[in-house]
């Protein structure tokens, strides 16, 4: 590991530890669970497509998968599997809540649904952007990138503005500020 990057994992672990200590509603734990389900969906479909498990490589914003080369159709299936896993978890939790309603189950279903939808946004390193890249011909790469950048900046300005304009709890406002910040940070790291 290079010396200048060695502080990032320490900072990420410290932020995670602080977040877990001051998370009275359990939102961070639920988000981590939904993220794990999301990544497991990618890995499971990769295993089905390639016949072996990928090598996950942790990064600041999640995991990247490496291993056997995939065809365009297989890569599209792997990309769709993460949000699909979140949607399946949300549906299963809603069915479970029908039999025994609990606030935590509904909340976890909502977090899973939001995780899947967020990852389908067509920005930066999210699955939605990669899905679009796989579906569109290569000649549209330049215009697609420019449209994505414009939409990303619009999203980054609108999300915090709406968070403060709408009557939301403080935790939701913080999430509305962090989500665009995450996308901008990932775009610079790309």
Largest sheet, spatial ordering of strands? 1-2
Rg estimate, integer Å: 18 Å
The low-pLDDT segments are: none
Mean pLDDT: 83
Beta-strand level of the residues, as a percent range?
Answer: 5-15%
Secondary-structure content class: mainly alpha
Please give the alpha-carbon distance between the first and last residues: 18 Å
Number of domains: 2
Order of helices and strands: HHEEHHHHH
Shape: globular
Number of strand segments: 2
Number of helices: 7
Main beta sheet strand tally, sense and closure: 2 strands, antiparallel
Q: Helical content, roughly?
A: over 70%
Q: Quick recap of the structure?
A:
By secondary structure, the chain is mainly α. Helix content is 73%, strand content 5%.
3D structure, described in words:
- With 190 residues, the chain is mainly alpha-helical.
- The protein folds into two domains: 118 residues, no CATH class; 51 residues.
- Helices cover 73% and strands 5% of the residues.
- The chain is built from seven helices and two strands.
- Strands 1-2 form a two-stranded antiparallel ribbon.
- α2 packs across α3.
- It is globular, with a radius of gyration of 18 Å.
- The mean pLDDT is 83.
């Amino acid at each position: 590991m290079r010396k200048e990057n060695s502080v990032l994992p320490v900072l990420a672990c410290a932020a995670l530890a602080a977040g877990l200590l001051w998370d009275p509603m359990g939102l961070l734990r639920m988000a981590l669970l939904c993220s794990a389900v999301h990544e497991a969906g990618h890995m499971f479909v990769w295993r089905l497509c390639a016949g072996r498990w990928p090598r996950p490589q942790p990064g600041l914003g999640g995991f990247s998968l490496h291993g056997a080369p995939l065809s365009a159709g297989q890569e599209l299936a792997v990309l769709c599997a993460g949000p699909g896993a979140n949607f399946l978890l949300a549906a299963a939790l809603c069915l479970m809540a029908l039999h025994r309603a609990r606030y935590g189950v509904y909340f976890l279903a909502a977090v899973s649904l939001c995780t899947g939808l967020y990852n389908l946004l067509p920005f930066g390193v999210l699955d939605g952007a990669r899905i679009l890249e796989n579906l569109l011909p290569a000649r549209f790469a330049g215009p697609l990138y420019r449209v994505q950048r414009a939409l990303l900046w619009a999203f980054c300005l609108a999300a915090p503005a709406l968070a403060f304009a709408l009557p939301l709890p403080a935790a939701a406002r913080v999430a509305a500020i962090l989500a665009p910040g995450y996308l901008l940070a990932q775009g610079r790291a790309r």
